[in-house]
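User: Can you predict the 3D structure for this chain?
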Amino acid sequence: MWIPTEHEKYGVVLVSFRGTVQHGLPLEIGDTVQILEKCEGWFRGFILKNPNIKGIFPSSYIHLKNAHVKNKGQFETVIPVEDSVITEMTSTLRDWGAMWKQLYVKNEGDLFHRLWHVMNEILDLRRQVLVGHLTHDRMRDVKQHITARLDWGNEQLCLDLVPRREFSMVDPDEISVTELYRLMEHRHRKKETSAPASTHHLFVHVKSLMSTNLGEELEVFFHIYDGRENRPLSERFFVKLNKSGLPKSPEKTERQCTLFVDLGSSDLRKDVYIVVHIIRIGRMGAGEKKNLCSVQYRRPFGCAVVSIADLLTADSKDDHLLKVYACNTESEWYQIHENIIKKANSRYNLSGSNTGLAVALQLLHGDIEQLRREYMVLFTRGVSITRKLGFSDVIMPGEMRNDLYITLEKGEFEKGGKSVARNVEITVYVLDIDGQILKSHVAAGSGEPGGDEYHSLVLYHNNSPRWAEQIKLPIPVDMFRGSHVRFEFRHCSTKDKGEKKLFGYSFVPLMQEDGRTLPDGTHELIIHKCEENTSLADCSRYLKLPFSKANLPSNNQTLKGPKESFWITSFLCSTKLTQNGDMLDLLKWRAHPERINDSLSKLKEIDGSEIVKFLQDTLDTLFGILDESSQRYGLKVFDSLVHIINLLQDSKFQHFKPVMDTYIESHFAGALSYRDLIKVLKWYVDRIVDAEHQDHIQQVLKASEYIFKYIIQSRRLFSLATGGQNEEEFRVCIHELFMSIRFFLSQENKSTSPVAQTQAVFLRTFPAVYSELLKIFSVREVAGFARETLGTLPTAVHADCLEAVKLQCIAKTVESQLYINPESRCILLPVVLRILQAHMQEQRDLVMCARILTSMLSLIQKEENGTAEPVVSEEVELIVESLLGVLLRTILEISNRPQPAGPAMRLQFQDVTGEFVACLLALLRQMSDRHYQQLLQAFSSKDTLRDFLLQIFTVFRILIRPEMFPKDWTVMRLVTNNVIITTVLYLSDALRKNFLNDKFDYKVWDSYFYLSVIFINQPCLQLESFSPSKRKKILEKYGDMRVMMGCEIFSMWQNLGEHKLNFIPAMIGPFLEVTLVPQPDLRNVMIPIFHDMMDWEQRRSGNFKQVEAKLIDKLDSLMSEGKGDETYRELFNSILLKKIERETWRESGISLIATVTRLMERLLDYRDCMKLGEVDGKKIGCTVSLLNFYKTELNKEEMYIRYIHKLYDLHLKAQNYTEASYTLLLYDELLEWSDRPLREFLNYPMQSEWQRKEYLHLTIVQNFDRGKCWENGIILCRELADQYESFYDYRNLSKMRMMEASLYDKIMDQQRLEPEFFRVGFYGKKFPFFLRNKEFVCRGHDYERLEAFQQRMLNEFPHAIAMQHVNQPDQTIYQADAQYLQIYAVTPIPESQDVLQRDGVPDNIKSFYKFNHIWRFRYDRPFHKGTKDKENEFKSLWVERTTLTLVQSLPGISRWFEVEKRELVEVSPLENAIEVIENKNLQLRTLITQCQSRQMQNINPLTMCLNGVIDAAVNGGLARYQEAFFVKDYIMNHPEDGEKIGRLRELMFEQAHILEYGLAVHEKFVPQDMRPLHKKLVDQFHLMKSSLGIQEFPAYVRASPVHFTNGSPRTCRNSVPNIISPDGGRGVARRSLPSYPAVNRYSSSSLSSQASNEVSNITGQSESSDEVFNMQPSPSTSSLSSNHSASPNVTSSAPSSARGSPQMAEKHKHSRENACLSPRERPVSAIFPNPLDPAQRAPSHQIGDTTLPRSDPNLSAPDKVRPTPSSWSLDSVKEGAPSFSDSFGKLLCPPVPPRPPYSAGSSAKNMRSQSPVTSRSPQKTTVPPFTPSPTECQSTSLVSNSPVLSGSYSSGISSLSRCSVSEASGTELPAGDHPSHPLPPPTTLPNSVSSSSDEPIRRENKTPPPYSVYERNNPRRPVPLPHSLSIPPQADPPALPPKPHQLRTGSMKLDGTSDPRVPRPRPLPRKVSQL
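Assistant: Here is the predicted structure, written as structure tokens:
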């Protein structure tokens, strides 16, 4: 039985558990679990990181830990009972663990590895803490280290700042908000800027000296030198180097390393240097022989200098190689470093090219104790300390030092009978009072131990040597008296074995007889003669002699000549000895009582460092004098005491304050002193008002804190000694003293008056007196003193400085012990609040006000947790009453101020804002129900309450701003939000009670709603973005505050009633933003508000257009920011649909909801696509879908234009330059050539409409150029040229014509790749909405074949499954919860047949028309119907032909477009045979023509083609057709095919005739080596003719042997001047053709290479028209080979999937193989021209009648819907439909090259290839329209009535660009005659339109895509419209186009003659006209 656990609540998993048992919970080692129940060795519970999944697990797998349970029961929380640092470490490491892995995924290797090391370090430290064996200090250090690492990691990972106190996390509920803010601020500042250290230390480590001329030992001396004052700042550091230049004692690191300590910040400047002197120990001359002398001398070697400032910029521990310089003359050795610093190059040079001193230098900052902790290794391995000369900037009490520094400066010596100057060496000794040499008390510097003596440098032959050598004498204080220093002078001879001969000595005593030491400074010492060492043995003999020339007697025989002198400089640094006589006189006052007055006066002149040395002795002296002679010396002693007290205020001596405090507590014994001190202090205070000079009085008041300390301590000593006598007298004296103080404080003075300054001085020190008074007086008495003293301050103070000081005084009072006591606080609070309120109202000294308020409110929080609840409540009430209003105003004021410029000021500004905010939050958090009631009742009127509510709502909005707190202050933000929501709940009642119904106030309610909305949308409340652990903590502590606020919004909204209308539509956007927050409860609460809004809007205006418009506008911006999801869309739809079920306006409501839902679908798809990295088809398709939606369904022009530019940017990024151009044209077509000003929009500046359109034109032309779509660019160039010409801007006109010419050149000169097209079906529900269950045709990339395209699509949709068949999928696939892709190649059906049919047009030009403006694509699948004839498969070989019609033509604004219509027809075997032979005939004609016109470089293609056809025919190809279709059975069974059989027979004869002609041409051009092949071809051709039974060609064939002008021998569309013959030059008369209706219907009208795929395989021909040039003749490839059965060679365009293909029947294998080939790789028929559709084949009765449509007039409408093979016309259906979707096919139809002139007598002169709608196919007299929009209407007479852009003008289509007529009559103007205007349009509509009337109606009702462009007329200037971009019509193309203004006029006329039966679209006003 499962029992709830009592104690087993929390545990850690020891062993992983798989959870394979029923209800088992899988566990991993280290997981923490919370246990709910137990049962026989099993626990039931959950893992803390995933509390939603509960299960059971073995109890033995769990290590139980003590835990504290909160909220016992269902929602209990378990907190482990352990050190808070351990808890934090554990949770933090868990959070880091997940993020650490993500760093690896994101490839952030550096942070990954650093975090790894820190995590391991924390784990090690955690173990140490858990073991618990650390000492208290070590534990503290470890915890500090842990928290520092945790903070570092949190900062690196952008996690929250953790507020801590003493290394432990702080619960924000347990401290006041002000205190929390201070903690956060302290940690933030600590993290942001560490306080600059005031003390610095230089670490020096000597490595080696590198030099080529070593060989002697060296001594290296370092010291720090002040270049400004030319004096050393530190003692010397001394290192000995061996002969190799390495340290002599490498094992003793303290002899190589030193720390120059106690450098001040002022020492880190550029003119402070590290100076290194190097001395060699050896022979006198560096080049002397070794055996000359054995005595060692100290000789100069070199000097190096480096600036300390250089170390500040260098890396921490760089090794430096210092250059070593030597002086040119030894006499300047003493100043070599100065010369180097001054760069006096003539006085020194490099001691050697390779000489350098290698040292490590590092500057360390901070206290020396701190350094010991941080650089423990440094101090443990040994480092010598090199001190500063003198004391550091801060003198610490207890510091013991007694160092005498003597510098050997210079000497003046005589020659002494020598011919040359002496080599003088000085030996220094220190001797004690007994004349004994003090051992080890002479030191050359730190680093080496002191010696008994010191030998100076020897300067060669110099009687005036200057050494400048500093030595240190660390003599103990007790040995100082009586000791002296002796200097012995010796001449060092370089001869006589290097003897050093004594010739004199000097000495100096260290202490004078009066106890003063040797004064600092330079001393000129007397040199006494002495030549024997024995004469110096008894020092008492010479000590009686004078030592200094300052006290030299008149005659002295022992002295050397008066010229001989020796100078030294002494400097004493001692904490015990003094050189000051005045100090000694004062301390010995009893010996000389008469000097007391003088000594007290001189005390102020004594140096402060001398006073603090003897502080206790000095104070004892002063109080001793006061006790003995108070009447006489009381005032002097008081002044001296004040001087000493104020001396300790100096930063240098501030650390001696504790020394004085200790003295007062422990050593002070003046029990009677208080009377004199009070008396003198009162005397001074009474004199303040009248005194002229306040300086001395101010000094007295400045020392008042310590004076009171002495007074109080003295009184306590007196009470102890006397048992409390004279208590009343003392109290009276104190009261009188305070009366005097209050009197002088109450004086009102100007700020400049001395009294005001004196008041300020007293107020600064006054709060420090409280704690002293409390030692004798009660709390209430002291509080009374403070209140009365502060209360006497004048309220209207004119002194600004005094105001600031007054506040500082208040601040110190609030922070004092006195205020902390609740008893005294209630006395002080009113006066504090009064002063604070006055300052805050005037916005003065806000920083100090914030500090005071913070301290006050911190205390209240503490008390609340205690017992004095009523007192606290009263205080809160007082503060609310006094300060709440002014606090709100202050926050508003400082938030609206501009931030100060300086960084320091800005920080202070942010701090004060934050502190006031914390104060407000703390105060609001303390307020209870009673406080709120009192606050709201206190408002006298509704207006004041309204102002208060507006204020507090505005302040709350400021608090919510992201910049209010640093981004990692989540804890502070959550506390803020908790306080805000609590307060808002209180205030909403006041809002309901006071501002509803007749008292309704819009402004207050609006402010309330606005606050609520931004509250919910705060980033810090979006729990979904947090880690699970963080989310759990927040929910446990605060709940989801968004839901609480949402419920409050809903409640308040419901209370509004009819006032809701005031917030419609203003609040739609904000509320929509709230509902997009991914919180289900919040959405459920807030979405119904939209129903309410719709309802009220419906009541008001009868519709809810406003609601709809606002919803749509906001959705786009909000969803693009990443808000909203699929769940929201479904919830929005379901909730609102449910709500409006019973409404009367249900239908319109459903429509609105459907529109918004559809928009959401597209926006979500768009957002998801945009998240992907690279630009792919999905992104572009999605943008197109959204673009369409905004244009067609929502009429949002501005959004439409924005998305045009987004799509444009995507295309540019993907380098789809052609598509980018088409996209930008959509915007271009919305503009006119007008001067209307346009506002600044997107990246466009403010400019006129003309300028913007010009810019767009140029950009589009540039992109067309980059996309190699030059034909389209030409038309835009023409339109721009027209504009320039109309304005006579010939400069730009010239440029434009040159640009146009360059584009023509590129067409002819540059190669263009022919793209492939692929049909893609997206099936299944997992696809985005814009793709789901739709099929598209896609234009492939350059060189992209089917397999590459398939792979690309599968990469774009990695979860998609490639379908292995080409059949249409069934419903199960459509509805599947997956993604299916069906891909296969399709063949484009070109629209512009006219250009393609002409001979002489270069392939460069034709290639454009083959692959541009393609609306329709074809895919053929061969199959056998009925029984298959094994002997002749052609009998049953049918072709299933699928034609796909797109919504827009390719290329367009996308690389793919949706298929709008599928048409499926079956082509019979006979028709199939006709097509095969037709196509082959076309190919032959083309090759023959190219060969004749010398377009072919090589005759091989023609050879191969002839070989293939003739060989196939001979081997039974054509014979198979004869067997199949010319037999009696077939003709009997298929009587309807009579015409077709005749046509097939005609084509066979035609082919034979063409072959005969081709062989004639071939013979003419065939090279000699291929003659045998030609002969073989001729022989085989004769065999072929005989096999076909052809003896002589029919008459109609003979009459026109081969006519190649139009590519068809039987139907010449255009008359030509002569008929081509093999000779190429003869003119042959042309006969009219007989009427062959069937022949004409099936005539091939195109030389397009897009032939049907299956035909090529029937013929077995594998070469393409391009590749054929590179192929060799192959007899095995023939057009109708009898060796190849038809079936295996028939191909299907089905894709071969990259993911495998199922087994197929043998007959389809070849089809599958060919299907995988691209059109360029497939057999030749895949790229040969397909026969023209019936609509483009004119029957014979139409010849000469161009007004009739080119489709079979006998077909009925149903036949048109599903055409049969004999009546099949794609164009008739397609072109008859006036849909905007169709018109994209005509987009940018480029100019047609001019045709040759026609002969007037030609019977076929009017038989021009013409589509039912002329704009689809370029004509001779109609220039094709340049349509920038893919959705233009089809023709002028058929225009859709779909809605246009909201606010946009009607974009009409000029009749010029949409003229639907080519020639109006059967006659033609003579060549050279140009019509003055275009001919009128036909009077009848094309048959294809009338016969399929149901189709246009269906398509008119469809919603057009967004690129619809409508007709418009511009009455101002008849210019071509931007979308038409047309060129003027002309009868015969002239050499140059006519003037544009003439053409525009004609165009406008023509427009008026369009069919009146079709209604024209109504122009709409342009609303968004400034875009």
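Confidence is low (pLDDT under 50) at residues 862-868, 1596-1970. Residues 158 and 968 are 7 Å apart (CA to CA).
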